[in-house]
Design a protein that fits this description.
With 126 residues, this protein is mainly alpha-helical. The chain has one domain: Globins (Globin-like). Helices cover 75% and strands 0% of the residues. The protein contains 6 helices and no strands. The longest helix is centred in the last third of the chain and has 24 residues.
Length: 126
Amino acid sequence: MNKHDILTEADIKLLIDAFYKRVIADPIIGFIFTDVVALSWEKHIPIMNSFWSSVLLGKNTYSGNPMIKHIDLDKKIMLKKEHFDKWLQLWENTVQENFTGENASEAISRAKNIASLIQFKIEQSR
């Protein structure tokens, strides 16, 4: 596969679709998405597409508060460092296998920063 940078909303969609296929199949975190919150993929995936389009492409389409969502989720099942580490590993692998370039690197860097902040806020909320 000839890799390029994340430049379009179609690239974001490819990344998110490939990532969440891995997430739901993963033995460490998949159950959180399928059983604990039973996410509606029809609702969740477009939100994630919008979030990452805003973060990486400067689109202004996302509105929401991921912090509150994760704090609420932590009340249903304690989110642990291993959950965040696995999420980040799957994200980084998916980005690197499909893309290369400045936005691809930014996707990994931003995900790490977001995960750290969410973990910190969750711990404060307990």
